[in-house]
Amino acid sequence: QVPLVESGGGLVQAGGSLRLACAASAIIFSNNAMAWYRRAPGKQRELVAAISISDMATYVDAVKGRFTISRDNAKNSVYLQMNSLKPEDTGVYYCSAAARLWGQGTQVTVSS
Question: Which portions of the chain are predicted below pLDDT 50?
Answer without folding.
Answer: none
